[in-house]
Structure to design on (196 residues):
């Protein structure tokens, strides 16, 4: 299948800009640049990139063309909101800088549901793996513990945010395809994000 979309920038540049628009919330943690900025920025990259690559690969396995693209209005809003909120809370609240663009010859509700499921499922898997590593009866260094906490919280929140059954978010597509699968995923994301 040919390329139906001619991007302005490469997929790598789009990913870097999307990560930066979220990481700006941590710029104000300058007192400790390693644990305050570097570790959460790496955790953000691990929350965003595998999520979008999971969508991309799921779409390609179903015979579609796909790639991650920067959504410029969302990038600007995310950058500004996370910059302003980060000045006070040191925590990002918005993740709408980009999306996986998909083009298919034919596209069913099941295709839409399964492709949409791949991203949040990846985030939940990373959050659970981080939690499991934190629970191991071994001595972890302070930076390792901080990194795993960032990784668990950010992945859980990205899963929760994307599973909201609203508009173009993954949750609305999964909900239309299989409400039981959506409900289980959403409850797990709520537990990991707000109860645990």
């Amino acid at each position: 299948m040919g390329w139906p979309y001619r991007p302005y920038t490469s997929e790598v540049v789009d990913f870097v800009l999307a990560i930066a628009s979220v990481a700006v919330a941590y710029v104000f943690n300058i007192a400790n640049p390693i644990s305050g900025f570097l570790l959460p920025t790496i955790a953000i990259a691990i929350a965003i990139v595998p999520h979008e690559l999971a969508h991309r690969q799921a779409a390609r396995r179903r015979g579609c063309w796909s790639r991650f693209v920067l959504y410029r209005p969302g990038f600007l809003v995310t950058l500004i909101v996370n910059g302003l909120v980060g000045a006070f809370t040191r925590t990002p609240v918005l993740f709408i800088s980009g999306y996986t663009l998909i083009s298919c010859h034919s596209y069913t509700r099941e295709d839409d549901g399964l492709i949409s499921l791949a991203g949040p499922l990846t985030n939940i898997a990373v959050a659970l793996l981080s939690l499991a590593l934190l629970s191991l009866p071994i001595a972890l260094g302070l930076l390792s513990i901080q990194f795993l906490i960032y990784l668990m919280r950010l992945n859980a929140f990205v899963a929760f945010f994307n599973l909201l059954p609203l508009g173009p978010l993954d949750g609305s597509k999964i909900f239309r395809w299989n409400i039981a699968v959506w409900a289980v995923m959403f409850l797990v994301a709520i537990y990991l994000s707000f109860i645990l």
